[in-house]
Amino acid sequence: MSVDLYFEYWRKIKSSEKSWGLAWYLAYGFCKRFYASHGIVPHVICKEGMGYYGIQLDYVRCSVNGKEYKQALGRLTASGDVENWRIGGPGDHGLETSQMCTAGVTIAQILSQAIKYMNLPAMPDKTHLNCRHKRWGASYELAFEIATIFAFRNDPPFKIWNHLYNTERVIKEFDEKADMKEHPGAFIFSLYDKEFILTGDGRVLGQSRDNLWDRYMLGESSYTLCLEIEQYLLR
Prior knowledge:
Elements: H1 3-13, H2 21-38, E1 40-47, E2 52-59, E3 74-76, E4 82-84, H3 97-102, H4 107-118, H5 132-135, H6 137-153, E5 158-161, H7 164-174, E6 186-191, E7 194-199, E8 204-205, H8 212-217, H9 222-234
Helix pairs in contact: 1-6, 2-4, 2-6, 6-9
């Protein structure tokens, strides 16, 4: 089942006030368009002390964007509203896309409004041709697609993390390629104390030598790969 179809299924049975499917769909849209070409990556955030959650739009640390931390571009709130932090700030819910979703606006229109509100250029200022995220972008986008389907299907206590703050520990512990230049990052799918760790280039860390990117290229779908992660966590 495609992400678009799964979103419509999610919208019929849940609301953006009770599940973060809209935030994940919009983040998936940004990832597909801006990760490889612009070096912009959506990261799951949970900053309880600051009182905000959701998915933050960050710059990839690469040769073009620089290796130091840069201020995030904005955030998709847990309910799916859009915040552009260059013109507003955390908590302003500048574009209330959750209301559009509830009103039945098509997801294509909602995504278009979200991208326009973030005011990102269609072409990057400088080419990322030699960056790892450009050369290996498709595998990271697949991992994000799997995570998006997982988010549609599973609410807490299931969790998904992909920010370096959350993934650095498992990368250092389990990944023999932890020191590679411009590491592709990782996704942690968890249920209580059980974790499934997927790197941005498709490798499964910890429990096997499996590679989901290889399996996808040989014909498996993102949906079936998502179901396999669920089954692993539920065993």
